[in-house]
Structure formats: structure tokens, C-alpha cells
Specification:
Two copies of one chain form a homodimer.
Chain A lengths: L1 H5 L5 H12 L5 H8 L3 H13 L3 E4 L5 E4 L2 H22 L11 E5 L1 H14 L3 E5 L2 H4 L3 H9 L3 E6 L9 E4 L6 E6 L3 E6 L7 E5 L2 H22 L1
Helix pairs in contact in A: 2-4, 3-4
The structure holds a DNA duplex.
DNA sequence: CCGTAGTAGTACTAAACAGTAATACTATAA
DNA sequence: TTATAGTATTACTGTTTAGTACTACTACGG
């Protein structure tokens, strides 16, 4: 929980104080210091900072008391502000040329790989082939639904149980943690995944590489079909 | 622009490097150091960090080259992650008791005041009275639209020109930067605004205070109506 | 072949700043 | 006298920024 709150620009101590406010609304700085086991100077500093950041409210009086701003409100405000910043950034950025047809980009870490795959899926215009284990496919449920709802051809190879209305699904008792994703026969993302920060994938738009992986996936599908007879 | 990017967990140096990648895709760390006027050790550190954070991609080769992740993708990923964190935080938080009927909360800073007002507006179930200058009313356009679309009674007192379909609007050549907001005859937010961090407002649910401000607003409306005859 | 210049990358040190931890002090209320 | 309330200050640790030093490689001219 503290970690999640640090995503919203709070220091660990501020996050701890915020959580304390939640279970003890209308407290004084002195009480917070005692509850948190931190010095009063830090408690007052944290409360002041929380108030500035819109996570707490001051009930002025003698003594001053503090209340938390509801988490959905505080977090929602922060996210909305970031959306605005994003709009400003995106509208001020030039278009970036697409490097994918020139070579091979290395994507490291599960998080970045999953983010990259999501982005590819959302930008797909015609068809998508994805082959990945059951533990990973769940990350893409929303994007795959979006695609099937928008009449893209979606072919999925994964472990049972997995179902998705509108998609063509091949069940395979695949071992190992490999990801293969092809979108619009133009981009491929492939490599190992589910190894935390150590996962490494390759992202490319090179036509020959795409063709090689398309053929590999088609062969995988044929083998599954043969096995089902 | 650097400031906006620091909202997305980049240091200022990383943000500067990211912007450089945008105008110079497929560069080496050595080139980045020269363009940014920073030491090569910092350039490599920044590029490594940007790659970890999902803002840049590595084109492995001799030498290594780097490309930016498109800003909408990078920022979108970050915001999505924060939404997830928000969901976790919100679902793990107990309901917080409402302190508003007990006293007077102090809200400081334009940003927090506007955020608080937005929250009050979105939670309004029946009617809203708001009196504020034209330079501020624009912050609430979206929320006010939402209210009128959802059949809440919305009464607005502000400077011309301002219009909103479905709301009752009284034009007033008001001076000074005062905000008065009453929602559902139960909550009031009032004080000065448009003074940056120095603005201070009071937020309360005390019935007598709400009644006093309701009467004050009704009087303001009567005066405007008389003037228009 | 050697020397020079430029490129590529990493290891290390240092200053400034931020976050955390703590002490000391003043003032007030119970 | 004790507890509460709040601020000022110092110290330590970690991060960010700035920089130096070093090794290794490539290209080019003499």
C-alpha cells in the first residue's frame, strides 16, 4: 500500500501518515507523531506537505487537526493532472519517425514488454497473431476484447483455459515463457517473458523477420490442428 | 515541457534527454552527451534509466543506439499503471467518516480549491449554486456540463460572457476573486481564489453556515434581477 | 607502423539537494 | 509537573547532477 501511494508523489513517510489519517481522522500533529513513531518535526512537515499536495485537509483551530482527502478524490485529482500534462506533452511533440523498419529494438523487463505489446495491439488495424502462456495472456484481455469488438482478426495460441468471444483460439500445452506477437504482418515482438526484469524481447518491423515468425506461427497452428484430430 | 515530464517520474536530466531523443532518434549515448551538454557518464545513466522506465528503447548494435518511446504511449502506460494503483488503494481503504459536519476545513492554494470544488460538484445530487469570476468558472465547465446533463439544478453567478445550456445563469460584473459554492444545501466552499498558493477557502457542512451562504446567494440573485429591470 | 583525434562506455569521486531521524527550545493547557 | 503543540536546527543517508579518469576501438595522416 505504501508503495502504491508513492506512485502518487508521496514520500514513504507522507504515505504512512496519510494511511494513519485514514484510520484516525481529525487528529493533531502531535497524535500523528505518536501513532507513526516519528518525531514531531517530521510529522508536522509531512502533514504540511500532504496538505499542499491535496491529500489532507486542515481543520484550523486550537489545536489544528487534520483529515485525509478521500483516496479516490486525491488519486483521481493527481491522475487528471497527469492527463493534462500528457496532453500538453503529446501536442508539443513532433511526430517521431518509425525506427522499426530499420533494425531491432531490445525491450527489457516484463513491464516494458507488456506495455509494448499492449501498444502494438491497440494500433493493429487488420490482424493479430499472439502466442504466449496462460499466465501472460491475461494482461492483454482488455486490448484483445477491443480488437475483436472492432472486427480485427485475432488469433491466439495459449494454454487452456482461456476463451475470448470473436477470437480464433488454439489451445496448446505450451511450456516455457515465450512471447510471439505479430500485428498487421508488419511488426513482431518476440522473446522470453515472465522473468521479471530479466526478460528480454526483440521488437522489429523488418519484413524478413516478420515473415519468418508468421510462418513459424502458422506451423505451430498446423501442429495443434493435427494433434486435435 | 521539462516540468510536465517530471510529473511522469523522470528526473530533469532524463526529461531533457528524452526530448533530445525525440528530435534526434537513433542516437548513441555519446551523441546525447554532446547534444545535452552533460557528461557521458550521466548521459549513459540517463539513457539506461529511461529504458528501464519505458521511455526509451535500445537498438543494440555497435554502437548501441536509442530511440524514444512515443510520448502518448509512455505517458499512457504510466497513467494506466497509476489507475491500477489507485484501484488497489481505493479498494483497500476503509470508508472515511465525513468531518464536514463537525467544523471548518481550510483549503489552501488554487489547485486544491479547484480540485475540492470539482469533487463537490461531481458528488452533488440535487442542486448547485456557484458564484465565481469568469476566469475561474472555466475550470468547472466539464463538471457543470455533467451536472446539467444529469438533470441537476445548476445556478451560476459569474461575469459575462459565459453560457451553459441547461443552467440558470446570472451575469454579474463582479469584482474581486471570491468563490462561493453550495451543493445540495449541505456543503459550502467559500473564500478567495486566483491568488495562486496564497488562496484560502473554507469548506464546511455546518448547517448554519450553509444557510447563511444560501441566503447571501439568494440576495445576490435578487439584486441582479432588480438591476436587469 | 605509429601517433593523433574522435567515439564508446564504465568506474569512481564530489557537491548539492531531498528525505528521514533526532534533539532542543518555547509556549500553553490540564 | 506532565502532556500537548509547534518550530528551529543538526545529522545522516540516498539521490541527482557534475565531473574526472581510464580503457578500448576505429579512422586517418605521416
Amino acid at each position: 500500500m505504501l508503495d502504491k501511494l508513492t506512485d502518487f508523489d508521496l514520500t514513504r513517510q507522507e504515505a504512512a501518515v496519510y494511511l494513519l489519517l485514514y484510520s484516525n481522522p481529525d487528529v493533531t500533529g502531535y497524535e500523528i507523531a505518536k501513532l507513526a513513531g516519528i518525531s514531531r518535526s517530521n510529522a508536522y512537515a509531512a502533514l504540511s506537505s500532504l496538505t499542499d499536495k491535496g491529500a489532507a485537509r486542515l481543520l484550523e483551530g486550537m489545536p489544528n487537526r487534520y483529515s485525509p482527502v478521500p483516496a479516490d478524490e486525491f488519486c483521481g485529482n493527481r491522475i487528471r493532472r497527469m492527463r493534462k500534462s500528457m496532453d500538453i506533452i503529446v501536442s508539443n511533440m513532433p511526430d517521431v519517425s518509425d525506427p522499426l523498419s530499420e533494425g531491432y529494438l531490445t525491450i527489457q523487463g516484463d513491464r516494458n514488454i507488456i506495455d509494448t505489446a499492449r501498444s502494438m495491439l491497440l494500433k493493429a488495424e487488420k490482424r493479430v497473431y499472439i502466442s504466449v502462456s496462460g499466465s501472460i495472456i491475461g494482461h492483454f484481455t482488455e486490448e484483445l476484447c477491443f480488437l475483436t469488438e472492432n472486427k480485427r482478426k485475432v488469433v491466439i495460441i495459449t494454454n487452456p483455459p482461456f476463451d475470448l468471444s470473436g477470437a480464433i483460439i488454439y489451445h496448446s500445452n505450451r511450456q516455457g515463457n515465450q512471447l510471439r506477437l505479430i500485428t498487421d504482418s508488419r511488426r513482431v515482438l518476440t522473446g522470453d517473458i515472465d522473468h521479471g526484469k530479466e526478460s528480454t524481447c526483440l521488437l522489429s518491423g523488418k519484413r524478413n523477420l516478420v515473415d519468418v515468425f508468421k510462418e513459424a506461427l502458422q506451423n505451430e497452428i498446423k501442429l495443434i490442428e493435427l494433434r486435435e484430430k
